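Hello, quick one for you while I still have it in my head. No rush at all, and the record is pasted right below.
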Amino acid sequence: MKIKPLRDHILLEPVKEEKKKGGIILPETVEKERPEKGRVLAVGPGRIDKDGKRIPMEIKKGDIVLFTKYGPNEIKMEDKKTGKEVEYLIAKEEDILAILE
């Protein structure tokens, strides 16, 4: 199944940061925190303004972005090749805070 975002939505693959534990005790919830960084897999065509004109997206496929922690919606799908469950995020363009270069 292929996911194609609509309007100003963005499909993201979460990028999980490695947490170094070097003698620091981390609570169990740290491992379960939702990432705030992701790789853009697909973007919608952009939103339509009140005059009916399409506003193009500033973000493109392949960008690494920072987003608001609880803004995106989480979806889980089965990977056809591995059979494992894969997690994706769908965010609105306004949930994206920055593009990492």
